[in-house]
DNA sequence: CGGGCAATTGAAGCTCGTCAACCTTAGTGG
DNA sequence: CCACTAAGGTTGACGAGCTTCAATTGCCCG
């Protein structure tokens, strides 16, 4: 891991991210004042469950996976964060201890924000507090969505749901590229890689073709009915 | 559903709840200024997924279940809120739309707080904003915990984990009473009632006895190893 | 004592995880 | 240009774990 200062490109990514987007410029630059940038290789562990954690992270490039470990060493993914996502914010309110592990899935650049300072800024600036609440809310929703899908849907249905989530409304014919390896998608959906493979096979009958990372939907209706 | 004003007992429950506990008195009474109380029978639906929702709820007595519906009518529990818990707060930040259904599991009294007003108060009062962030964080964690347990643990392990969560540290012999029907516990753990039953059977061999709603642990170590 | 509901138990079926083998692709070096 | 390798992905076979349905037991409150 190397640490750097913030360059202008990084700054653009930060300001364009979901969290900073709606903040007034003054608030943003107050936060960005002492941001540090770090780079990580694929498979690098960013922090581990239970460790002290006094920073909040924003993905400048690459991909980060949040997961927990079972007693037997098995891993369960909680979330996957692409470029522009802020994560690690919950430690801020839970005694500065990480509640999960974080790992870089690809070569990744992170912006690191001091959480104590951010919290102080949130006290002084209602807009920042509001942005934080929206972020927490979004993350809570993501987890609840996952939980509900895990409990209500079968593997092919979860995959169908993921595909539909990437397909604009009112279009029957559509194609898009997975933003990561199938491996990662499987983890995100709570499936073994083999199960994901079989799910794709099952969806072929409903007009889904998969070539490498490219997914084509030929009949949106059929997917929705699945 | 009947609606009432706030009496002194309700007020005590509110002020003693996790959310209000740490708030300065001025902030609390500002919020409680226009609180309304409503009563509900067992099985009453409090609100439904997708409905407009401009209130936040606090359980004064009884029990509330948050759940989502699958296409086939099956239900997946997201959370169960006992007395003193605040819920429905996420709608505040997501366009005032409920993202799940809520149902009274028992005869229940709710305090209803206008969410627009609460949000305004949060802007003006950093302590309220902070309490909200902690609440959101706790709820996010609860969902993540559930998700991780669902994915990492078998049914008996999840039940063991639930029992251990109700058993103070450093004690080998312990007994407590379930705060709700086994039915509800099954839902909370993402199990069919039959599966919960079988899980209890399996745990008998590890020193857990169940009589009605009373659970006895005779060997904490054995449970932890499970 | 009996009705009704929760809880338990049994049997059957389905979904998914696991293990192993195989295929495909890309990258490497002769 | 082609053989070789390595890693991701796919397929098959099998078993574990949970759901479902059905029947039974246990329990509370009339």
Automatic annotation (TrEMBL), chains A, B:
Location of the Cyclic nucleotide-binding domain: 19-139
Name of this chain's protein: Crp/Fnr family transcriptional regulator
Database matches in InterPro entries: cNMP-bd_dom, cNMP-bd_dom_sf, Env_Response_Regulators, HTH_CRP, RmlC-like_jellyroll, WH-like_DNA-bd_sf, WH_DNA-bd_sf
SMART domains documented for this protein: cNMP, HTH_CRP
Species name: Ensifer adhaerens (Sinorhizobium morelense)
Sorted UniProt keywords: DNA-binding, Transcription, Transcription regulation
GO cellular component: cytosol
UniProt-recorded Gene Ontology molecular function terms: DNA binding; DNA-binding transcription factor activity
Any Pfam family: HTH_Crp_2
Residues of the HTH crp-type domain: 153-221
Keyword Nucleotide-binding: no
């Amino acid at each position: 891991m190397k640490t750097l200062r913030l360059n202008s490109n990084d700054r653009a990514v930060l300001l364009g991210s979901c969290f900073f987007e709606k903040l007034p410029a003054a608030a943003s630059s107050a936060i960005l004042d002492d941001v540090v940038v770090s780079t990580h290789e694929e498979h690098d562990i960013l922090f581990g469950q239970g460790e002290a954690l006094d920073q909040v992270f924003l993905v400048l490039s690459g991909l980060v996976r949040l997961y927990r470990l079972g007693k037997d060493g098995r891993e369960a993914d909680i979330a996957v964060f692409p470029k522009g996502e802020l994560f690690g914010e919950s430690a801020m309110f839970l005694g500065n201890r990480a509640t999960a592990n974080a790992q870089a899935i690809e070569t990744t650049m992170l912006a690191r924000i001091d959480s104590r300072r951010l919290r102080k800024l949130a006290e002084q600036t209602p807009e920042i507090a509001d942005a934080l609440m929206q972020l927490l809310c979004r993350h809570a929703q993501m987890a609840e969505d996952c939980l509900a899908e895990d409990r209500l849907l079968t593997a092919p249905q979860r995959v169908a749901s993921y595909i539909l989530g990437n397909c604009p409304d009112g279009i029957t014919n559509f194609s898009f590229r997975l933003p990561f390896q199938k491996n990662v998608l499987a983890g995100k959906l709570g499936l073994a890689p083999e199960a994901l493979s079989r799910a794709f096979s099952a969806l072929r009958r409903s007009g889904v073709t998969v070539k490498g990372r490219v997914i084509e939907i030929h009949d949106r209706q059929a997917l929705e009915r699945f």
